[in-house]
């Protein structure tokens, strides 16, 4: 069974840092690109960052570029999101999502598996 | 960034009746491979999103055939041939042609 389990969400003060993890099982992790997608309370979905299956290419939303770093450890089947200089507007549920191929620009399109999300609250 | 505009914001539906929602992109979404890089997701209440349609018109694995996607230039349509009660939730389109990938604002489907 495919599973994606996020962890690391917490209450943090503005300017603080946090690292999210997404541990996966049930598929060959290194064969698939991954992303983080967030959802602020009562709001829509926002793509945050993505990484190719090899970890060799990373992509970011402008709102987090320079503050967040996506990475993966294929030996541990785990995806990470290092978040620094956190702002109130980063408050959201953060989902990790599995893409259907090694990198994003192929006909095997779409995020076909999602975790349950982890809540990040940035507040003083 | 590519802007995705969904309409309507809210869609009251009657079980057994058809339903349709739209998504418009600010730029074309056709990749050099000939496919439109547009996906549809459904987020049921209290759940994570799930993939419904990829490349604008292809149903994802396990998705009932009452769901279908159409493409006309930069206009994309998701149709439900006969709505069921389990179809309520927020529907999002998402372009994945250029980073940053961007979602539409969503269409909320609810039972009348």
Plain-language structure description:
The complex is a heterodimer of chains A (124) and B (112). With 124 residues, chain A is mainly β. Chain A has no helices and 11 strands. Chain A has strands spanning 3-7, 11-12, 18-25, 34-39, 45-51, 58-60, 68-73, 78-83, 92-99, 111-114, 118-122. In chain A, the strands form 2 sheets. In chain A, strands 2, 4, 5, 6, 9, 10 and 11 form a 7-stranded mixed β-sheet that branches. Chain B is mainly β. Chain B has no helices and 11 strands. In chain B, strands 2, 4, 5, 6, 9, 10 and 11 form a 7-stranded mixed β-sheet that branches. Chain B has a 4-stranded antiparallel β-sheet with strand order 1-3-8-7, with no helix packed on it. In chain B, β9 (89-95) and β10 form a beta hairpin. Chain B is globular, with a radius of gyration of 13 Å.
The CA-CA distance between the termini of chain B, in Å, is 36 Å
Instruction: Tally the helices of chain B.
Output: 0
What can be said about the biggest beta sheet of chain B?
A: 7 strands, mixed
Task: State the helix count of chain A.
Answer: 0
List the helices and strands of chain A in order.
EEEEEEEEEEE
Give the quaternary arrangement of the chains: heterodimer
Shape of chain B: globular
As residue ranges, the low-confidence spans of chain A are none
Q: Tell me the fraction of residues in β-strands of chain A, as a range.
A: over 45%
What is the straight-line distance between the termini of chain A? 40 Å
Sheet having the most strands of chain A: 7 strands, mixed
Which structural category fits the helices and strands of chain B? mainly beta
Round the mean pLDDT of chain A to the nearest integer and report it. 97
Name the largest protein-protein interface in this structure: A-B, 26 and 29 residues
Kindly estimate the percentage of residues of chain B that lie in beta strands according to DSSP: over 45%
Q: Summarize model confidence as the mean pLDDT of chain B.
A: 97
Helix share, percent of chain B:
under 10%
**What characteristic shape of chain A results from the CA principal axes?**
globular
Q: What is the strand tally of chain B?
A: 11
Helix % of chain A is under 10%
The total strand number of chain A stands at 11
